[in-house]
Amino acid sequence: MNFTRHGALAISLGTVALFSAHASAENSTLPTGATACALEVVVLGAGQDAGAPQLGNPQDMGARLLPTSLAVIDRENGQRFLLEATPAVTQQVHALDAIAPPDTETPGGLGLDAVLLTHAHIGHYLGLAQFGFESASADGQLVLAMPRMAEFLRNNGPWSQLVEKGNIEIVELADGQLQPISDIFGVWPITVPHRDEYSETVGYLMMTPQRTALFVPDLDSWDEWEAASGDTLEGLLARVDYAFVDATFYDDNELIDENGDGRDMSAIPHPRVLDTMERLEALPAQVRAKVHFIHYNHTNPIRDAASKESTGVIARGFNVARRGDRVCLVDGG
Ligand SMILES: [Zn+2]
Ligand SMILES: [Zn+2]
């Protein structure tokens, strides 16, 4: 594991101290694109794993959703990072290329300095297949993943073939440990409770000397996370400038039709958008403004920017992440 071979500056231990110097909360209200940006986060998709329309819903004429994915563009070091390899990875990386053209000299050949994965559910890693022999045939694409996720990829086809053929090279991360990437960027995985059939599940802190963004697209419950971590969502929000958090379902009634038929939502735990907003209601406006709801199911009414639920989220001081959104973590460039 050595990012310096990709042209990034070497990291010294002193850099870790740099990451603790977070910017003040008012920075989170910087209008997108208002200043030149040296390092930014771009939303490449904001939908749940299956996006929308989903298989079996040919009549769904709502806004098209791509599965949740973020990109990080570091203009200072000429680097690009992809968070999640979704089933729509081809379209999403092409969208990234249009914003920040790839440096094809980057190992892997696609101009991605690393792909970061959160867990082994379909919307979050199936796109890795596109790095393989039948598609881009990447050469040594770095993939950052937690140990169980890495083990799963190494030991199960077709993913194991990507490893064997050298299409991907897995770098293992450790829970709660900063992984420095360049002199101005590092990632900090945070384990969260989720259905962990094949892998553990993490979110990421994307850290820079100026601002930090949190990415937790999928978890069962904030209460469970708090009990396991000893931390609080409110505490986490105090330490970041932007928070892209699980908004899979709006409320408990979403998968039930007018006849009362549908899927039992108690078997699909996720923090509901309504509950998260209520939980954070008493926080100051500048803290609420850090929250960007992401990973919404095709049934979630916030999918439609004009819905009363979407406008309600905004009226309560929160945000709904939309494909194409950009937030700046380091000014300049
Ligand atoms: Zn998901
Ligand atoms: Zn999941």
Radius of gyration: 19 Å
Number of domains: 1
The number of helical runs is 10
Biggest sheet architecture:
7 strands, mixed
Note the gap between the termini.
28 Å
Task: Specify the CATH homologous superfamily.
Answer: Ribonuclease Z/Hydroxyacylglutathione hydrolase-like
Strand arrangement across the biggest beta sheet? 6-5-4-3-2-1-14
- Principal-axis shape equals globular
**Strand percent estimate:** 15-25%
Q: Per CATH, which architecture?
A: 4-Layer Sandwich
What top-tier CATH class fits best? Alpha Beta
Question: Would you give an account of this structure?
Answer:
By secondary structure, the chain is α/β, with parallel strands linked by helices. The protein has one domain (35-55, 66-327): Metallo-beta-lactamase, Chain A (4-Layer Sandwich), CATH 3.60.15.10. Helices cover 21% and strands 21% of the residues. The chain is built from 10 helices and 14 strands. The chain has helices spanning 14-19, 89-99, 122-125, 147-155, 159-164, 222-229, 233-238, 273-280, 285-288, 308-315; strands at residues 37-45, 69-74, 79-83, 114-116, 141-145, 168-172, 179-180, 186-191, 202-207, 212-216, 242-246, 291-294, 319-320, 326-331. A 7-stranded mixed sheet has the order 6-5-4-3-2-1-14. Strands 7-8-9-10-11-12-13 form a 7-stranded mixed sheet. Strand 3 (79-83), helix 2 (89-99) and strand 4 (114-116) form a beta-alpha-beta unit. It starts with 13 loop residues before the first helix and ends with a strand. One zinc ion binds at residues 48-49, 121, 123-124, 217-218, 295. One zinc ion (ZN) is lined by residues 119, 121, 194, 218.
